[in-house]
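Hi all, long-time lurker, first post. I run a small reading group and we've been trying to get comfortable going from sequence to structure in the token notation. Rather than ask abstract questions, I figured I'd post a concrete chain and ask someone more experienced to write out its structure so we can walk through it together at our next meeting. Sequence below, copied exactly:
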Amino acid sequence: AAKGYQKVGWGWPAWFVDSKPTADTEGKKIIKAGTPVYGSLRARNTAFTISGSQGAKPAGVILHDVDVTDGKKNSQIVIFGTIDVSKVDSAVATTLIAAEANLKMIQLIQ
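-- Answer (accepted) --
Happy to help. Here is the structure in token form:
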């Protein structure tokens, strides 16, 4: 089951495609909830990814786990709100905390 963590905020529908996630023991490629994502909120027909170009700022963070094993999937990103970092995967929490300064409208709590 997908983990959610948002306390208060606003999500934006988006789609994701990314080859970066490493397949788990079941062969699934999962982008975990809380992962910062890169892309354009204006270019609605382009996918968000978990890797941005050097110096890029994340557009938001994924609200729920997204399975991209079979390609493009729909989900939501949080672009405004408060996120409880203690409720995301520990590796994702490290990445999220490192990106905090670039997530201007998202406040992290623990």
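A couple of things your group might point at:
The longest strand covers residues 73-84.
The helical segments are 90-99.
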